[in-house]
């Protein structure tokens, strides 16, 4: 479903993604783990066709990015660090607007379903500007699943959600996974990711450094696995950055 | 909670529509969204209007002494006012898209990105025309000109279209940077100089009732400018908005 080869992304002189390879089969649920600044968000933004890679090949559902991005966007549902909502519109107006942008048929019925799903039916006529952070995040999730996308790219979707909403989101994620949707989710909550995902990939310093299936990874061991994966990469980085200086010393 | 969550859409989802009507629908959805939001906050129109009226008043006092100079400068004053108020509106309208990451939301939608450009440009044009419709009568009182001048109205329309086309494109570029409020006029004003000269000359021509043959070259320049920049924006918008 998703195929990435040799992906490189630079911001100015800084290389954020270095020759990254990544594959996801249809129906897999991949949890992307990694320390702050590892490049998870940057990577998801490229998959979502919001950002252009400097090099490398990205294919989603057989379409090449960025050339055939328009076709890919139909099947993507994205939750990003920001809610992507208009503060001066109400919850239902926001969904109605995005419904039009996605060409959804029977939008009112669908908007009602989604608002029920994220538990905002009672606040549907309130301006998003007046929503708390968690409520905005709920609506952002509703926005992302509005067109029932085949591939979901969720960047730390649990941020700001209360207990009930987190359970709701877990329910949504399980339900879409059960229907064979593909999910790529970044998270810093290993316990939660361990519960949901069928595969764990660790990104560190712009590379996927480890990948393991749920079957081979008991939940209790996930933290050790994560620690080990990022420390390998850090050791390697230390060694490579020490080489030139040791040469100078000689 | 949990358990019986339902997120599947009803079977009627994603009806394939005729592409052109879907395109127009998208453009219209964006315009509609902008109008609805503006109706709530009134931020954009108020700031544009107050600013435009201040500019016109300041010029009025500055040019008070010499009636002859005043008459000659009248059309220049008009366009300076529109330009300043216009940048204010363009900045606000793009800042609203950046606020909660909405621009990303638009870019994620499965629509031709030029539709996003035309949607934003249309609503910007609409706001600009509203401000102009309010400013023009006041201007006609202060500068003693006759408003019922179809030529002048046409020039205002043509000038605004070109200004908004370039402005929307550059505003969506400037909004990605930290210094967007300053950057927009710095980028925009040099590029609209030809448009300005043509608009000022053409409106002066109509105000002073010159021969049509003297005005036509400027009108043609306006039309060509509008077409060129609409086409340029149509082609490059996609590249401008992606990081
Ligand atoms: N627009 C940008 N301009 C310059 N550098 C950027 C930009 N966006 C991200 N970066 C850099 O890219 C690197 C990766 O950032 P990214 O946001 O992808 O990390 P992340 O893995 O999502 O981290 P977090 O867990 O904190 O969300 C960071 O070093 C960051 O400074
Ligand atoms: Mg991130």
Task: Tell me briefly what this model is.
The complex is a heterodimer of chains A (250) and B (243). Chain A has 250 residues and is of the alpha/beta class.
Overall morphology of chain A:
globular
Instruction: Give the helix tally of chain A.
Output: 8
The greatest interface between two protein chains, and residues involved on each side, is: A-B, 54 and 41 residues
Strand-residue fraction of chain B?
Answer: under 5%
Strand order within the widest sheet of chain A?
A: 6-7-8-3-9-10
Give me the number of helical elements of chain B: 9
Q: In this structure, how is the largest beta sheet of chain B organized?
A: none
Estimate percent helicity of chain A. 25-40%
Task: Give the mean pLDDT of chain A.
Answer: 89
Assembly type of the chains comes to heterodimer
Computed over alpha carbons, the radius of gyration of chain A is 19 Å
Low-confidence stretches of chain A: 242-250
Indicate the mean pLDDT of chain B: 88
Account of the 3D structure:
- The complex is a heterodimer of chains A (250) and B (243).
- Chain A has 250 residues and is an alpha/beta fold.
- Chain A has a domain at 84-148.
- Helices cover 40% and strands 25% of the residues of chain A.
- Chain A has helices spanning 40-47, 69-73, 91-101, 107-117, 133-145, 163-178, 190-196, 222-249; strands at residues 2-11, 14-24, 29-33, 55-60, 63-65, 76-79, 151-155, 182-186, 199-204, 207-213.
- A six-stranded mixed beta sheet of chain A has the order 6-7-8-3-9-10, sandwiched between helices. A four-stranded antiparallel beta sheet of chain A has the order 2-1-4-5.
- Chain A is globular.
- Chain A starts with a strand and ends with a helix.
- Residues 242-250 of chain A have low confidence and may be disordered.
- Chain B has one domain (42-240).
- Chain B has helices at residues 19-41, 43-62, 67-99, 102-108, 113-142, 150-174, 180-191, 193-207, 212-241.
- Chain B contains nine helices and no strands.
- In chain B, 80% of the residues lie in helices and 0% in strands.
- With 243 residues, chain B is mainly α.
- The two termini of chain B are 40 Å apart.
- At the A-B interface, helix 2, helix 3, helix 4, helix 5 and helix 6 of A face helix 1 and helix 4 of B.
- Residues 40-41, 155 of chain A line the site of magnesium ion.
């Amino acid at each position: 479903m998703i195929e990435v080869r040799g992906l490189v992304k630079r911001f100015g002189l800084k290389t954020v993604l270095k020759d990254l390879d990544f594959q996801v089969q249809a129906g897999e649920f991949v949890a992307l783990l990694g320390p702050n600044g590892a490049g998870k968000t940057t990577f998801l933004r490229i998959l979502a066709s919001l950002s252009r890679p400097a090099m490398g090949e990205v294919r989603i559902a057989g379409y090449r990015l960025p050339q055939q991005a328009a076709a890919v966007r139909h099947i993507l549902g994205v939750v990003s660090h920001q809610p992507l909502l208009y503060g001066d519109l109400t919850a239902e107006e926001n969904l109605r607007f995005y419904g039009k942008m996605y060409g959804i048929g029977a939008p009112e019925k669908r908007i009602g379903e989604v608002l029920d799903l994220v538990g905002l039916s009672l606040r549907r006529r309130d301006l998003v500007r007046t929503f708390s952070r968690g409520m905005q995040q709920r609506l952002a999730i509703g926005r992302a699943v509005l067109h029932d996308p085949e591939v979901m790219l969720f960047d730390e979707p649990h941020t700001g959600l209360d207990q009930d909403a987190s359970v709701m989101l877990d329910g949504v994620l399980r339900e879409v996974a059960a229907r064979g949707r593909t999910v790529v989710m970044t998270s810093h909550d290993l316990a939660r990711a361990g519960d949901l995902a069928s595969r764990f990939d660790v990104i560190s310093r712009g590379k996927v450094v480890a990948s393991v299936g749920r079957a081979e990874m008991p939940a209790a061991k996930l933290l050790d696995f994560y620690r080990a994966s990022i420390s390998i990469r850090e050791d390697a980085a230390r060694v490579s950055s020490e080489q030139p200086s040791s040469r100078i010393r000689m | 909670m949990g358990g019986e969550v339902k997120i599947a859409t009803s079977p009627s989802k994603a009806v394939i529509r005729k592409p052109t009507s879907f395109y127009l629908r998208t453009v219209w959805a964006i315009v509609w969204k902008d109008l609805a939001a503006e109706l709530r906050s009134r931020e954009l129109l108020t700031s544009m209007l107050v600013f435009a009226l201040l500019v016109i008043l300041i010029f009025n006092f500055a040019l008070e002494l010499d009636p002859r100079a005043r008459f000659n400068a009248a059309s220049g004053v008009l366009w300076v006012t529109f330009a300043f108020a216009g940048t204010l509106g363009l900045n606000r309208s793009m800042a609203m898209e950046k606020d909660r990451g909405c621009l990303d939301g638009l870019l994620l939608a499965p629509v031709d990105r030029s539709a996003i450009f035309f949607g934003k440009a249309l609503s910007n044009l609409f706001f600009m025309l509203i401000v102009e419709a309010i400013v023009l009568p006041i201007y006609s009182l202060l500068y003693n000109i006759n408003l019922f001048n179809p030529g002048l109205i046409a020039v205002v329309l043509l000038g605004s279209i070109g200004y908004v086309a370039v402005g929307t494109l550059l505003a969506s570029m400037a909004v990605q940077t930290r210094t967007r409020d300053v950057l927009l006029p710095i980028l925009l004003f040099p590029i609209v100089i030809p448009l300005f000269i043509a608009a000022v000359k053409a409106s002066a021509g109509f105000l002073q009732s010159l021969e049509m043959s003297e005005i036509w070259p400027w009108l043609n320049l306006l039309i060509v400018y509008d077409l060129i920049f609409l086409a340029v924006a149509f082609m490059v918008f996609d590249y401008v908005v992606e990081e």
